[in-house]
Amino acid sequence: MYEPDALDLCLLQALQLDGRAPFRRIAEVLGVSDQTIARRFRRLRGEARLRVVGVADRSRLGRTNWIVRLRCAPDAAEPLADALARRPDTSYIGLMSGGTEVMCTMKPRSRQDRDDLLLDRIPRTRRVTSIDACCVLSHFYGAPLGWLNKIDALTPEQEAALRPDPPGAVDGPVAPDALDEALLEVLGRDGRASATELAAATGQTESAVKRRVRRLRASGLLVFYIECDHEQLGHGTVAVLWLKVAPSRLRSVGRTLAGHREVRFAAATSGQANVMVSVLCRTTEELFAYLADRVGAMDGVQAIETLPTLREVKALTYVTPR
């Protein structure tokens, strides 16, 4: 197994802070050469399947995500997960323990798209036995791999030097035009695509696409995340927790979960289990200790359902290789 060293971890956290940070800037902050950073980046791409992706913050678009739990016959779960992963309107697919449940995050572009998916297409899918669709009401923490912000590889001074300016306040949803959408499509495949590549894909000049990318980032619409093989980083135990939390404690529980090193995603959802948490641990023993000693001890947590993940089929925009 590939084992990243301290410099690799610093580079990963630097990219989590700013996915488009020039290698020159990262190298200067870390005290190494540009060539060293470029070489490490290429190695992480090969060994740990590192990807930088630029995606639209759907809350800035006024759109809602849905987390869907699909239960089906054992021999139907994996083909269903693979088929859902190929859809552009899904951003996370997990094959859960037992092999009979597929968990899927869906991002419909409109109410009609949502109804077509949840009320028509999925219910008519063969061998699906039950469907639970939960609306994401509020995010407490991050995208699927936001946990790289918590690995503490960088010093506070290095973090401050690499952290980009925060987006400005925006009143109401942002409305991207056709050229913005074209840029987002390219950046969704490669968040570090050069200005030359972006210009070629959109038919604009390099200066024009640079201005648009700056504007999209400043508005908060365009955000960058890191995808990588967390098992290569020593975190081989993945699980989803469904918590039933007293409504009066939702905010405080969410804030506490967001600060846990194990948590890479947490959100309040509709449904009886009203908080969904995705966690990464090194071992099953570590997962047990986290559940028993930390989550179970939180004031307001009334029940916990724990679902280990057998295979992550898709994260954000990339289908994960088997």
TrEMBL record:
SUPFAM superfamilies to which the protein is assigned, alphabetical: Dimeric alpha+beta barrel, Winged helix' DNA-binding domain
Keyword Nucleotide-binding: no
InterPro entries xref list: AsnC-type_HTH_dom (IPR000485), Dimeric_a/b-barrel (IPR011008), Tscrpt_reg_AsnC-like (IPR019888), Tscrpt_reg_AsnC/Lrp_C (IPR019887), WH-like_DNA-bd_sf (IPR036388), WH_DNA-bd_sf (IPR036390)
Membrane-crossing segments per the record: none
Domain HTH asnC-type per the UniProt entry, residue ranges: 176-236
Keywords attached to this entry: DNA-binding, Transcription, Transcription regulation
Keyword Zinc: no
Pfam families membership: AsnC_trans_reg, HTH_AsnC-type
Identification of the protein by name: Lrp/AsnC family transcriptional regulator
